[in-house]
Amino acid sequence: MRTIFAIIISLSSLFGLEAARYGVDISTVKVGNTPVTRYALPEADGPQVLIAHGFAGSQQMMQGYALPLARAGYQVFVFEFLGHGRHPDPMSGDVNALDGTTRLLMEQTADVLDRIAVDRAPVALIGHSMATDILARVAQERSDIGPVVLISAFSQVIDATSPRDLLLVTGAWEPGLRGFAQEAVQMVASDAVEGQTVTSDGVRRRAVVGPLTEHVSILHSRAGRAEALAWLDTFYDRHSDQRTLPTGTAILGLLVGIVLLFRPLAVLLQRRLISPTSISNGQIAAVLLLPALATPFIAVPLTPDILPVLVADYLGLHLFIFGVMQLLFLVWWGARVGGISWTAVALLIAWCALFGFLLDRYAANFWPTADRLWIIAALALGAVPYMLADTLLTAQAGLLRRVMVRLAFLVSLGIAVALDFSGLFFLIMIAPVLVLFYLVFGTMGRSVAVRVGPAAPALALGLVLAWALGVSFPLFIGV
Q1: pTM for this one?
Q2: Which helix (H) or strand (E) segment is 396 a member of?
Q3: 23-57 pLDDT, tens per residue?
């Protein structure tokens, strides 16, 4: 019955996601080295829209906005910032200076605009998170900008007159950014409330909230996307009779279905005799708390500067120290890794590759550029021992222990950030990637571990974790 449910939810989700793309021509061009994806109906000649993703994002993450706008007749262009997604060139400059990384990203945005904005109506801008500051600054400096939609926005450059035509979309679970959006509207009308459009001296503003959403899921909020389409239609005097499809729900359904479908496959693996890892509650507490507390104090002073990816050096080192410490405790207390099933390794990697293909098509970049392969290999040196310890601790554990095991590592990263906030701040943004990894790949790995032991899933998932981290964070070369 579970398998039938998984097939139904997977197929229905695929149908919904393909329906969102149906009829839309999707092509990729380059502006310099910047990959730009164009979404438009055949022969579309509507206004042009430029969409930019947030930090550690990619053009796939912005499809929730690109596709409905394209189906409504707009010509939509989504580009990838330096160091992100499949852009081959790293970010650079001083991330804390306006004339550093920010200026470089503004110049990159201007280059794309110069290519697409040729003798046409003003170009609409849509951006998420980090991109909101870049787009607000670009809009202030150019005369060819039309309506601006900023999602989960924060920018000190927004004032009472710029951008002149601005919609702010925020997730209901983003209280700080929701407050900022309200303040931006109240710059125009001091008594304005959420959901109210205000105008003054040619300035038009509105702040809306996506129900039940946070910083990432807001990108698929049906309410937020419908508001964005209506905002652009008003500016360009258009009427779009377009239904906003529930792509966020479909992506979630597809991922759940893929995970559930793996279990029947794992059952086909030949079962091996597994020596149970039996340790006391006190030993469990020690193997969680001691590495969690000690690793940051060891790793932070040793942080290398080798990998051209933000915080990747530290993260790889943290994974290695944390995992090795846990393994030493576990082996000392009698844990046995056992032999490795290469069939299980191949099965896990193949299913993870399928998952990655679907994720890359519908939700977020999952395939690396050539320059990232050695970064993935370096991260694997820490990810494999970490996953081996994780698998030993979780393969035969109940839900509570599995949660505590993963929480210990996240807390350990939090301590590291507290010790070096300016240098390791971006580790905060790795938490959602890790939680998704535990829920998806950790669940599949456990299905294998209970049949063939921890070695096979630890190797496979260690490589997949290194891969996921290696493609998620931007390439960066500091000043």
Answers
A1: 0.91
A2: none
A3: 999 999 999 999 999 999 998 989 999 999 999 89
Domain count within the chain? 2
In a domain, 264, yes or no: no
Contact predicate 151/130, CB 8 Å: no
Alpha carbon separation from 129 to 154, 382, 447, 478 (Å, rounded): 7, 30, 37, 21
pLDDT digits (tens, 9 = 90+) for 142-201: 999 999 999 999 999 999 999 999 999 999 999 999 999 999 999 999 999 999 999 999
Kindly tell me the burial class for residue 99, based on how many C-beta atoms sit within 10 Å of its own C-beta (0-12, 13-18, 19 or more): exposed
Smallest CA-to-CA distance from 74 within 232, 261, 281, 288 is with 232
Amino acid at 427: L
- Residues 128, 132, 138, 144, Cα dihedral to 10°: 60
Domain encompassing residue 245:
2-249
CA distance 343 to 172: 45
In a domain, 257, yes or no: no
Bond prior to 163 in cis (omega within 30° of 0): yes
Residue 340 near residue 459 (C-beta atoms within 8 A): yes
Residue 240 belongs to some domain of the structure:
yes
